[in-house]
Amino acid sequence: KLYSLAAEIEANLREKHSINTIIGISGTSNHLRELADRYKQSQMAIDVGRIFETDSKIIKYDNLGIGRLIYQLPVTMCEMFLAEVFKKKQIDSLDSDTIHTINKFFENNLNVSETSRKLYVHRNTLVYRLEKIMKLTGLDLRKFDHAIVFKVAMLVHQYLESQRKDD
What we know:
Shape: globular
Largest sheet: 2 strands, parallel
Structural class: mainly alpha
Strand order of the largest sheet: 1-2
Number of helices: 8
Strand content: under 5%
């Protein structure tokens, strides 16, 4: 219900007044003394949403997931993590087709057959691409633990890029 009200407000501001907005929705509160914390949650939803949910105009604090955790990490720790994961190879060395393939693979829950169907490529082509990624990064994205590390690394990279733009 609150989300639909926020969507209505956002649409009204955009359509009638040409104002682009991002609305952050906090968790619920039962006491007035919690209002300051809920305001901070709404602000964090907006800040984190600008980095990780760039297409969303309404962002719920409760849906921020791991992005909220990454947002609170020091930049130096994020840089160290990326250096450990990618060694001397830069995540930037992955071309847009490779990133698209990886994102589709994650969207399809690491399912090779389903991902190859969605990408309109032969299953063996996808396996070849995944092996190419493994040679570049040392991570086999078909293994859940490796996929998690890579996904977190992509989010950390996205966060660091947003920090560089703000500087």
